[in-house]
Amino acid sequence: MTRLFLALVVFLLVSMGAAWAGDDSGLHPQRFAYHPLVLEEMGPGLKPEVTIGPVVDRSRAYLLDITEDEFAGKPDRVVRNVWDRIRYGFAMPPLRGPLVAERELWYGQRKDLVANISQKARRYLFHIVEAVEKRGLPMELALLPIVESGFEPGALSTAQAAGLWQFIPGTAQRYRLKLTEHYDARRDIVASTEAALDYLEFLHRMFNDWQLALAAYNWGEEAVLRAVQRNQAKGLPTDYESLTVPEETRYYVPKLMAIRNIVLSPELHGVELADIPNAPYFAGIDVPMALDLQSVARLAGLPAAEVLALNPSHKSSFISGKGKPALLLPTDRIEAFAQKIANYPVKTREMRKREAARGVQKSLIGFELPEAKPL
User: Fold this and answer.
1) What is the pLDDT of residue 371?
2) How far apart are CA 150 and CA 120, in angstroms?
3) 102, 148, 152, 221: the active-site residue
4) Are residues 253 and 320 in the same domain?
5) Residue 277 within a domain
6) In terms of domains, do 123 and 15 share one?
7) Is residue 368 part of a domain?
């Protein structure tokens, strides 16, 4: 670049000396050819001749009629929404074949299902994209909850895998996701996302291959490792498509690649994705006082279902209080909710004792509640 800059400056000084000296020729359009050295540096995309219009502000005479695209080689990418951000972050090697095509056709024939899943994703996708991007990981991983849970944080499989990322209890314990009588961190949007990306990074370091890492996320790293070793012993390839795996794992990566292709070009598949702005949907707020679901919904001015969709990890009636994770609410409700909480009278210990003696459970804003049951 230094050689290019010097060559360009020298040539311009020679070509435009008359204009800088006050000659009237500087007020008329001029044409000149680039120095061969400049053309060599810039490549074939640069026009060999340039026309310079009349120069009025002589302090800016060094500016040429060269577009930014000629320097950058490609136009700037415009991020209109989260889907654009995801598309620009795709980095996994493509997987082609009949299984991917079959899954593309399957999703394309279920447009309502795809639209419904993308509508659920609007609550969580920006946060997941942020987390993936901060780690420098392929953006395909942000779409994995579509395969795992359909972006349903309350999903529970027959193998007792729970949450957006479908952690089984054993893996949840390995990645410090707490499971208690009142709280299931596998359903915690923030905690489970960090744990899932920790696990995926670990698997990628183990196999140095994203397709094998994804297979291990579905089937288990030990199972995939044994399958790799079996192929090595037979002198066979050890890539994902060459392994002998269960049917679910065989379809697992093709499902994700099919979804990737649909997100990349939804119009080609006749699919409409929900509009998801490139902005946070929710924010957290620490609430030290105990509030039940209905109380939070009333204070936040939200349907209880919306509060529960953002805070699905709580298995008791009370979803806030001392020692509990931050309460997640839509960003446009946080400020008003914080003001109401700041001005809200806290019950005294004696009031709680009297209520406990009467056997009545109440929220802080006076609703009588039925006996606490898992949500």
Assistant:
1) 40
2) 8
3) 148
4) no
5) no
6) no
7) no
Evaluate if residue 246 carries a pLDDT over 90. Answer: yes
Contact in structure between 314 and 372 (CB atoms under 8 Å): no
To the query of whether residue 148 is one of the catalytic residues in this protein, the response is yes
**Mean pLDDT computed over 89-108:** 94
Structural tokens at position 336: 């008003």
| Euclidean distance between CA atoms 103 and 254, whole angstroms | 7
* Domain with 18 in it: 2-72
Asked whether residue 375 is domain-assigned, the answer is: no
Is residue 328 within 8 Å of 282, Cβ to Cβ?
yes
> Does pLDDT of 19 surpass 50?
no
The DSSP line for 282-346 is EEEE---S-EEHHHHHHHHT--HHHHHHH-TTB-SSEEESTTSPPEEEEHHHHHHHHHHHHTSPP
Listed residues 242, 269, 296: the one ending a domain:
269
Backbone angles phi, psi at 184, to 5 degrees: -125, 100
- Beta carbons of 202 and 208 less than 8 angstroms apart: no
What pLDDT is attached to residue 48? 59
Contacts of 62 (CB under 8 A, 6+ apart): 12
Mean of the per-residue pLDDT values of the chain: 82
**Pair 125, 142: CB distance under 8 Å:** yes
Higher pLDDT, 177 or 347: 177
Counting the structural domains of the chain, the total is: 3
**Contact (Cβ atoms closer than 8 angstroms) between residue 181 and residue 315:** yes
User: What is the rounded distance in angstroms from the CA atom of residue 94 to the CA atom of residue 66?
Assistant: 36
DSSP labels for 69-119?
A: HHHHSSPPPP--SHHHHHHHT--SPP--SHHHHHHHHHHHT-HHHHHHHHH
Same structural domain, 86 and 159? yes
Q: Are residues 259 and 139 in the same domain?
A: yes
Cβ-based neighbours of 337, under 8 Å, separated by 6 or more: 285, 299, 300, 329
For the chain, percent of residues with pLDDT exceeding 90: 66
Do residues 105 and 229 share a domain? yes
170 in any annotated domain = yes
Q: What pTM was estimated for this model as a whole?
A: 0.74
Model confidence band, residue 172 (pLDDT cutoffs 50, 70, 90)? very high
Residues 300 and 239 in one domain: no
- Residue 354: per-residue pLDDT: 58
* Residue 208 backbone zone (phi > 0: left; psi -120 to 50: alpha; other: beta): left
